Amino acid sequence: MLIQKATLHELEPLAELFDLYRLFYKQESNLEGAKQFLKERISNDESVAFIALDGDQPLGFVQLYPSFSSVSMKRSWVLNDLYVKKEARGRGVGEKLMKTAIEFVKDKKAKGLFLETAEDNYNAQRLYEKLGFEKESNYFYYYSI
User: Fold this and answer.
1) What is the per-residue pLDDT for 143?
2) Which of 52, 80, 105, 125 has the greatest number of CB atoms lying within 10 Å of its CB?
3) Does the keyword Transferase apply (predicted)?
4) What is the pTM of this model?
5) Residue 47 and residue 33: Cα distance in Å, rounded?
């Protein structure tokens, strides 16, 4: 298995995974929309994605978005997307993708890597905690349109 930073050369397999990820979250399939969205993010340096490949078969991906901390005056990263194909689960793909993301953030000397997950996504929670992530209990998060 190879984990590499996704470029426009990996747009097709990355879009396939991204579409499956969106289906997992109960969105309608839109492969062309996925390609366009990812092409814009990559072309404009608005995100960093890593893709796991077994030969030419895409297994999973992780996507990070840059942010900043005004208090620490440092960049931070938001892990927005992590997905592993059903048939590749249980093989350590998610953990390897996460470790790659963590090393990327460390190499950039960022403040940290932030993520959120669904309350009932127990598999992801176990992985995050295994890798040293701590559940935040000091802040409330709000959302508005």
Assistant:
1) 80
2) 52
3) yes
4) 0.92
5) 16
Are the C-beta atoms of residues 63 and 48 closer than 8 Å to each other?
Answer: yes
Lowest mean pLDDT among 8-17, 35-44, 75-84, 133-142: 133-142
pLDDT in tens, 6-18: 999 999 999 999 9
The tokens describing 21, both together, are 């990820």
- Phi then psi for residue 36, to 5 deg, are -65, -45
If residue 126 lies in a helix (H) or strand (E), which one and from where to where?
helix 122-130
The structural domains of the chain, ordered by start, are 2-130 (3.40.630.30)
pLDDT of residue 145: 84
Strand bridging mode 113-115 / 74-84: parallel
The answer to whether 79 and 62 are in contact (CB under 8 A) is yes
